[in-house]
Design goal:
The complex is a heterodimer.
Chain A lengths: L1 E8 L5 E8 L6 E6 L3 H6 L1 H13 L4 E4 L16 H19 L3 E7 L1 H10 L5 E7 L5 H18 L7 H11 L1 E4 L2 E4 H9 L12 E6 L4 H15 L4 E6 L9 H4 L5 H13 L5
Parallel strand pairs in A: 3-4, 3-5, 5-6, 6-9, 9-10
Antiparallel strand pairs in A: 1-2, 2-4, 7-8
Helix pairs in contact in A: 3-4, 5-7
Chain B lengths: L14 E8 L2 E8 L8 E6 L12 H11 L3 E6 L20 H14 L4 E7 L1 H11 L4 E7 L23 H16 L6 H7 L6 H17 L8 H11 L3 E7 L3 H10 L11 E6 L9 H21 L4
Parallel strand pairs in B: 3-4, 3-5, 5-6, 6-7, 7-8
Antiparallel strand pairs in B: 1-2, 2-4
Classes of the chains: A alpha/beta, B alpha/beta.
Chain lengths: 277, 314
C-alpha cells in the first residue's frame, strides 16, 4: 500500500491538500472523503485516517482532502461557501479519477461533510454511492449549534452573555462572524441555513447508506426522512446504526475511538451493492 | 472588527509534505520554507495532545504561514499516533509523545539545513515534550512554550507513569478546597438532584473523596509546589542552561498560568528577554479566538526575530 500526500489546485487556483491511500491491487472504484466543519474535522481526523487505511488494506483506494479554508489547504474559511466546497469536491473527484485511472467513486461524508457529499452527488454522475456518517440534516439546526458554541465560549470566558440576535446583527453588519477562531461569511450561513436533507429533492440515482449512532434518537428519526427522499428516486437507500460512541466530539481527542463496526459495515454494504469488488 | 491573519496564497511560500523516520516509525510533516533558502531559524511545531499538525482552530497552520513570510522556516509535525503519521503510540496518557521522536526530527532539520537555529514549539502536552527533547539535544537554541501544563492536566486525563502520582499544585488544592467548602456551606449534600447530576450512578464519588482528602493533607503540610517528575526536572535543567524560552499563557487559562507562576517565580514577564513569559489577552488554553491567536502569533514571531540576533548555539 502506498500513502501519498500532495497539493493540487482547484478551479479557483487555491492549493488544496490531498492524501491518497493506494493499495497494490486496486479496483476501478475509489472513495473520496468529505470532512466535517471546523473542530469536528480535527477531532475525527485520526478516525478517518484509520478508515482510509482499513479500506486500503482491503484493496480500496481512497482520497482525503481539505476543502479551501480548512486544514492544510489555502485560504480562510471566510472565503468558503457551501457551493465552493461542492466545487472543491468535484475537483478532487476529477483529480482522483484521473490520477488513479478509476471509473467511479463513492463519497463518504461525516457530519457537515455528509451534506457536501450529498450535494456533490447530485451534480456528478461519476458518484455511484454515498455513505453519510451521522449527517447534519438540517442546516438551520447546525447553524444554531455553531452559534451556541460561540455564545458558550463567551460565557465561559467570563464575558457578558451574547444573544444570538446580537451575533446575527454582527454577521449582517460585517458580512462575517467569528466561529471557532475563524470567520464564516454571510453567504456561507445563508446557504447552510437553506439545507434540509430531510426535504431534499435529490438528483442522484445511486446507492445511499446513512450511518447514525445507535443512541442518537433525533438524528435517526431525521435520517429515516432522508432515506424516504432518496427512496422515491431510483436509489437504493438504507440506514445503519450500531456504534454508540461518537468520534468527533472533544472527548475523541483524549480517548480515541475508531468506529470499526461502521468501517466494516460500510465496506461490506458497498460490496453487496456491487459498487466495490 | 475581524482580525486579519495573513494566509493568502499569493504571498505565502508553498507548503511541502514530507516524511521523517523516527524511532516510533514514520512521522508526517508539513514544511514551510521561506523563499530565501538561507534562513537562520527553523521552528519545529509539536502536536498539542492528539490534535494534528493543523493545530486547534488552525492555529499552527496560521503561525507557520505567517512565520514563513517573515523568513522563518517552520515544520509542523504529526507525532506518533497523531494525524497522518504511520507511527503508532504504545501508551495512551497525557505525556505519551516521545522525546526520541522529537530528537529524530531535530536530526532531520540539522541534516537538511545545518545553518538554521532550531527552536521547538509546543502547546500543552507539546510544550512538555519540547523541554524533555531540548535537554538531550544541545542543538535546540530556544523554546516557544504555549500553555505549558506545569503539573499534569486535569484529573480526568490518564496519568503518565513517568510523572509523580502526587501532582497537586497549590492552585489545584485551593480550588478543590474552595469547591468543597462551597459544597458544605450551601448544604448541597442534602440535595439528591445535585448528587445525581454530579455523580450519575455514583460513578466518580470515590475518586473525588480521595482527591479532596489528598488536597486537605497537602494544605495542612504547607509543602508548596514541590512535585517533581520527568517534565519538571527537564524544565529546571533547561532553564539552568540559559537557553532561550518564551512561555505564553492565555489570560483565561488560569490554572496553567497560576501553576507556572508558583513553580517558576524567577521567570520575568515581558516577551523581550531570553527567558520570559507573557500573557495573551482573553486567551484560553488553546487560544480559541481569532484575536488571541493573532496576539499569540505576533508575540511569538516578534520574540523569535528579536532573539535571532543574539541566539547562539551552545
Amino acid at each position: 500500500m502506498v500513502e501519498q500526500a500532495f497539493f493540487f489546485q482547484n478551479r479557483s487556483g487555491d492549493h488544496l491538500f490531498g492524501y491518497q491511500h493506494i493499495p497494490q491491487n486496486k479496483g476501478k472504484t475509489g472513495i473520496v472523503f468529505c470532512h466535517p466543519f471546523g473542530e469536528e474535522k480535527h477531532r475525527s481526523y485520526r478516525s478517518i485516517v484509520e478508515f482510509s487505511r482499513y479500506l486500503a488494506n482491503n484493496n480500496v483506494p481512497s482520497l482525503r482532502f481539505d476543502m479551501r479554508g480548512s486544514g492544510d489547504s489555502d485560504g480562510d474559511m471566510v472565503e468558503a461557501t457551501v457551493d465552493s466546497q461542492v466545487e472543491d469536491t468535484l475537483d478532487a473527484i476529477s483529480l482522483f479519477i484521473e490520477k488513479q485511472s478509476l471509473d467511479q467513486v463513492v463519497l463518504i461524508g461525516l457530519r457537515y461533510g455528509a451534506v457536501i457529499a450529498a450535494l456533490t452527488a447530485d451534480q456528478d454522475t461519476r458518484v455511484k454511492a454515498i455513505v453519510l456518517l451521522s449527517p447534519v440534516i438540517k442546516g438551520s439546526i447546525y447553524w444554531r449549534e455553531l452559534l451556541r458554541t460561540r455564545q458558550l465560549s463567551s460565557v465561559s470566558h467570563n464575558q457578558k452573555a451574547t444573544r444570538s440576535s446580537e451575533l446575527l446583527e454582527e454577521l449582517e453588519t460585517n458580512g462575517q462572524l467569528e466561529i471557532e477562531a475563524q470567520y464564516v461569511s454571510q453567504t456561507f450561513v445563508s446557504q447552510l441555513q437553506k439545507i434540509d436533507m430531510s426535504n431534499h429533492k435529490p438528483n442522484f440515482s445511486g446507492d445511499i447508506l446513512v450511518c447514525d449512532l445507535a443512541n442518537d434518537v433525533i438524528n435517526k428519526e431525521l435520517s429515516s426522512k432522508v432515506i424516504q427522499q432518496y427512496s422515491g428516486k431510483e436509489c437504493y437507500a438504507e440506514i445503519y446504526s450500531e456504534e454508540e460512541r461518537d468520534y468527533w466530539s472533544n472527548l475523541a481527542l483524549y480517548d480515541q475511538f475508531y468506529p470499526d463496526k461502521t468501517f466494516e459495515f460500510s465496506r461490506s454494504w458497498l460490496i453487496k451493492r456491487g459498487v466495490l469488488n | 472588527m475581524p482580525v486579519e491573519i495573513r494566509t493568502t496564497s499569493d504571498t505565502v511560500p508553498p507548503t511541502t509534505p514530507t516524511n521523517i523516520t523516527a524511532p516510533s516509525g514514520v512521522l508526517f510533516a508539513q514544511l514551510h520554507l521561506p523563499t530565501d533558502n538561507n534562513f537562520s531559524q527553523c521552528v519545529i511545531m509539536l502536536n498539542s495532545g492528539m490534535m494534528n499538525r493543523v493545530g486547534p482552530q488552525r492555529l499552527y497552520w496560521k503561525f507557520a504561514r505567517q512565520a514563513c513570510e517573515e523568513g522563518i522556516a517552520v515544520i509542523r509535525v504529526d507525532l506518533a499516533g497523531v494525524g497522518d503519521s504511520l507511527a503508532e503510540i504504545d501508551e495512551t496518557h497525557f505525556d505519551n509523545h516521545r522525546k526520541e521522536d522529537v530528537s529524530a526530527i531535530i536530526d532531520y532539520v540539522r541534516e537538511q539545513w545545518p545553518q538554521a537555529d532550531i527552536i521547538l514549539q509546543g502547546l500543552c502536552a507539546g510544550a512538555r515534550v519540547s523541554f524533555k527533547a531540548a535537554i538531550v539535544n544541545q542543538n535546540v537554541v530556544g523554546l516557544l512554550a504555549w500553555s505549558t501544563e506545569i503539573f499534569t492536566a486535569s484529573q480526568n486525563m490518564p496519568q503518565s507513569p513517568h510523572e509523580p502520582e502526587d501532582r497537586l499544585s497549590d492552585y489545584e488544592v485551593s480550588n478543590t478546597l474552595s469547591r468543597f467548602f462551597n459544597f458544605l456551606i450551601r448544604f448541597k449534600f442534602l440535595s439528591p438532584k445535585w448528587w445525581h447530576e454530579q455523580y450519575p450512578g455514583g460513578k466518580g464519588i470515590k475518586d473525588e473523596i480521595k482527591h479532596v482528602a489528598h488536597c486537605t493533607f497537602k494544605a495542612l503540610r504547607f509543602s508548596g509546589d514541590q512535585s517533581k517528575g520527568e517534565f519538571l526536572e527537564a524544565a529546571d535543567e533547561y532553564l539552568k542552561t540559559n537557553r532561550k524560552v518564551l512561555f505564553l499563557f492565555g489570560e483565561y487559562d488560569e490554572r496553567a498560568y497560576s501553576e507556572f507562576h508558583s513553580r517558576f517565580p524567577q521567570i520575568p514577564r515581558g516577551a523581550d528577554l531570553g527567558q520570559c513569559y507573557e500573557v495573551v489577552d482573553k486567551g484560553t488554553h488553546t487560544f480559541s479566538t481569532a484575536k488571541s491567536q493573532h496576539q499569540l502569533i505576533e508575540l511569538s514571531i516578534d520574540w523569535l526575530k528579536q532573539q535571532s540576533s543574539n541566539i547562539s548555539r551552545a
